[in-house]
Amino acid sequence: QVQLVESGGGLVQAGGSLRLSCAPSGRTFSNYGTGWFRQAPGKEREFVGAVTWSGGAIYADSVKGRFTISRDNAKNTVYLQMNSLKPEDTAVYYCAARSGGLPVNGNWYKPAEYDYWGQGTQVTVSS
């Protein structure tokens, strides 16, 4: 069992930046694909982006150009750098991991494809 621990959420004004971190508790991220999702009140969980073990990243159109996912395998940590934040980015952000890499056939946006989830961290963007 992999437990993911997220950190870095908070309150920020529109246009500001935050960096979220995700690390597994008790084991390495070796050979895991990692995704970021978010869920706003009353809405379904939404794909934000994902990164392969080697560092290749993909993004949802809504965050492309503003958010960057990276990973530091030496520190066993995946990051979500969020710039130019908007009020509509307000949500609980979740880190998810899948053993063996990201889902294939374009299914990386599907929450059900991931094996492990963090507890979530709140991001609130004020206007």
Kindly describe this structure.
The chain is mostly beta strands and 127 residues long. It is 0% helix and 50% strand. It is built from no helices and eleven strands. Strands 2, 4, 5, 6, 9, 10 and 11 form a seven-stranded mixed sheet that branches. It has a four-stranded antiparallel sheet with strand order 1-3-8-7, with no helix packed on it. A hairpin with a 4-residue loop joins strand 7 (67-72) and strand 8. The chain is globular and about 40 Å long. The model has no long low-confidence stretch (mean pLDDT 93).
Overall shape: globular
Largest sheet: 7 strands, mixed
What gap, in angstroms, lies between the N and C termini?
40 Å
Unreliable runs? none
Strand content: over 45%
Helix content: under 10%
- Number of E strands: 11
- What's the tally of helices? 0
Report the order of strands and helices: EEEEEEEEEEE
- The radius of gyration computed from the alpha-carbon positions, rounded to a whole number of angstroms, is 13 Å
| Class derived from helix and strand content | mainly beta
Mean pLDDT: 93
